[in-house]
Write the structure tokens for this entry.
Amino acid sequence: MLCLACQENKRFTKLSPDETGVDFENGLIEDEFFNILTYEYFYNGAGVAVADFNNDGLDDLVFTSNMGNCEIFSNEGDFSFVNRTESSGISTKGKWATGVSIVDINQDGLRDIYLCFSGPYGAIQRKNELYINLGDFKFLEKAADYGLDDSGFSTQAAFFDFDRDGDLDMYLMNNMTDETGPNIIRPKRVNREMLNTDKLYQNNGNLTFSDVSKESGITIEGYGLGLAIADINGDLWPDIFISNDYLSNDILYLNQKDGTFKNIAEKVFPHTSYSAMGNDISDINNDGMPDFIEVDMLPNKNYRQKLMFGKTGHDRFTSEIKTGYEPQFMRNTLQLNRGYSKDSLPRFSDISFMAGVAATDWSWAPLWADWNNDGWKDLFITNGYPRDITNRDFVDYRSNFATLNSLEIFEKLKPLKGAHLGNFMFQNNQDLTFNDVSETWGFEMPGYSSGLTFSDLNNDGQLDLVINNTYSKASIYKNNGQKDENNHFLQIKLTGKKGNFQALGTKVNLYSNGQSQYYEHFLTRGYQSSVSETIHFGLGQKHTVDSLLIQWPDGNQQKLFTISANQVLNINYNPEPSNTRQKKANNLPVKIGQGPTKPLPVFEHRELYYADFNLQPLLPHKHSQLGPGIAVGDINGDKQEDLYIGGAYGQSGKLFFNNGIEGFDTLTFSRDNSQYEDMGALFFDADSDGDQDLYIASGGNEFEVGSKYYKDRLYINDGKGNFTLDSLALPEIFASSSTVVGADFDKDGDLDLFIGGRLTPNSYPKAGRSQLLQNNKGHFTEKTDEIAPGLKNIGMVTSALWTDYNQDNWLDLIVVGEWMEIKIFENQKGRLVLRENIPGLEESSGWWNSIAGADINQDGRTDYIIGNLGLNSRYKSSVANPLRIHWADFDKNGKSESIISFVEEGKRYPMHPRDDIFQQIPSLKKKFNDYHSYAQATLTTLLGQAYLDSTANKLEAMTFSSVLLLNKGEEGFDKIPLPQLAQVSPVFGIDVGDFDGNGRMEILLAGNFHQAEVITGQYDAGYGLQLEYTENGTFEIKNQTLHLSGDVRSLAPVFVGEEKGLFHLAAKNDQPSQWLSLPGKSNRAPLPEVDDSKKAILFFKNGKIRLVEFYHGSGYLSQGANHIFAEQGLEKVMYFDAHGKAIKTIQF
């Protein structure tokens, strides 16, 4: 029995049916002929709606029922309700009701009810119903009269004015499987040939509707479960978002403003949820742009995940993509609106993992609302399923049902338990993350919940919750607030023009003390449900709203100023005369700097498919698609910056010769070069003849250990840009490499090289072989063990940087990599010594990708930006509970296997699904003969405590944040995580500089990674990010949508010429390269390079100084030119040689 006093201390109290009078229950009756195995949607639940049906100022309730009668309850005040169903005229028994929508369809000021029906019944029983409100809770069914008695398999309807003619039209979402099966991979059906194609009904203006689906372009099939309306591109025309279950992709129909729609989901979403259910659209971060959430069925706990997952479906995913489906992954997706692209369409990043809302198990309805009135929208998600048919043990058991009759099958089904789960409440942390407050706010009780709505049921200024449950009474949660908060609110009731008295489609912008909030007014939200018409804003501690901007559906605007908090504001349509012309309410696309008149060259990187996961099923990501790299340098002595972009196995890289205003000429390397997988590349003077030679690191995972195609290559330049392979210049080392960076670490006048060893092929996570190559007149000798003990097998190196971190005029080496700590090899007069226990670098193990150096805070010391995996991943880690990997030849077959593990509630579990583990280590099948036993297995159970205690074959990752290392001199480093937006994707490409010349240093970041295992799914949330470091030591987001989407790897600055200025070139894996021109950049030429200079110090008139080191390779597989620009306020530049001696000063 619940402790009522305890409940009152929580934010929400679940009120009993005895208290409220609401005793509705969505009851189901199973038998051998009608159950989850005979009807796919038996447990999909039902909806709920709130509306003020009698205009008394209190929201009433409507519940839909799958097998019983839909019921309506009048709100008598103080959470007391009366069941009005019997006398209401609402009669649906014998029909399978699904969604409910509220609309004043005849514009008489009374709210009417539209009910959707589905089920394994005939067309008559599937006819949707429209109940016209006659007043006093009396209703008359009139769907046929209005032309809305659709007999499809309907899930939900939404009313909106799609043609903006002033009246409300209707979109109808359908869902029905056919004999093919909903998850069989076959070509998409996009020409209305399927029963599960949605419909669009146009309001004829005479109380009738016409089906205009075909002519409007509503033709794409889908197993629709979630429906939302919103203006996603700010053009004032409402668009349609449909979340589709199973294989069918989600649909985002963009309103073409001519009565037709076009699906743009593939353009704006890099991926979506797989088994998508309900959805909701709202502005979650108060930037004035709509964000999306849709829910799926990924469990949040290890046990249920292991019961659900068999084998990671890499082959299936590849097949789906080849068949024409867009990427989709089994988890909730929270699509953050990143702003408009050049095509005036928004782009979205799925941040669900980082936000903490990716896994909420078998979820149905998500709703955004401000439940604690702090001015930020929180998230509630309903959850549960009465028979857990995804349990892999049951799936295997079910495979034996073919010989059984229906009664025998039903008897086998009965013992199957359900996913009896609690609902989720997430509090908005105001930083793109959410805190699970389900239990602390009062939602600890499990159930089978589906439809959800919110309303301030007792008009106390706090939103309450109503939930439709299967096999239990509906839930009403009273919002108690918190006594110590004292947060305020503002509620708004809109009255629009006739035709749309509900003012659906109105946009409201609220401004209060520097904070803004945005709301778009539609009622169909969540799952099969409809929310309150009263718009609710939490205000936090603010007593007054500075202004409200109301943009009505016709585009006209209305402004109100200085509005007191804690009231219900009634606003009638009365636009300002000056705003009779329609205006856009939302932000216009961010303008990115225009490119040059002559197109810049594009290199399309092309990979040959290699099945890494078939050889190593337990990999977290592929290693055969890690390139390409970029090198920039003047290769023919014409003072122009030329470049090289690496190829892939089966493809040669390309040289691009910069001819100034004439553009670029290209040269493809010989076919012999195509047998390698290019990684890092470096232009440098290998043979001291005054021109730029080219080193290409060979890497990848495609070849056997010791293959000749892992040998790096050195091409000698004849001074005119003609390159010849010098097969004798490099030692006979055949190791899969990553980065190549150059420095005269021994001060003998020529450039030596560090080559990062990326991996041991097909032996993850064994270290690669790193090399320190000493230059002797153009011939290179491997000196790693002699000069840098411990460097050769330091780990899976991804990036490195030669830098004088301690300012002793000897170049040190910083090395980062996968499962590695940040390592510094200090140069002690020509000998590299691994430094231990440097403050700020302890507990720094991660999956590092890249490193770049710059004096970020302009204190005369080099700081470092280091790119990591980021926080938007299912792989979670901390210092206390690091991610770990162990490896050994567990099954004694002569090959090493690796197992990744994580900590949940104090216990360490293997990360991998059961079938993946057994594919790699078949001997474990005997130990865990079902999914249940494996789901309970800890790492100790799996591998044995004796092995775990004795093995040295383990690595860990304690942090996945990309960071800034501020150099504090002898005090070590301050390790500062980059802002949240920098953590949404892995960071590969990095460049740093004062690109706009305003005296502040900026950080340019780029990166994604599409080759992750498909349970996690591709990392694709990055669009490029420009940060600015401020005087007070914080970051400002300068530009969050640089359009650098796709599988970005290397990034290098290229000065194209004075006419065009500085550009950045991004190379992408298996995709075309891309040029970026930053907004606000200067086109002035960089200062001429000074011979023999190794660094420079910039002195500014305001007293600031900035150290600039000159690098030969930095970032990820990248080499850019060492530019210094004559910035505003620059007083002088002093250049220094390798010994720290000033060799030149330029005054301004």
Notes: Confidence is low (pLDDT under 50) at residues 579-596. The CA atoms of residues 1058 and 1084 lie 6 Å apart. The radius of gyration is 32 Å.
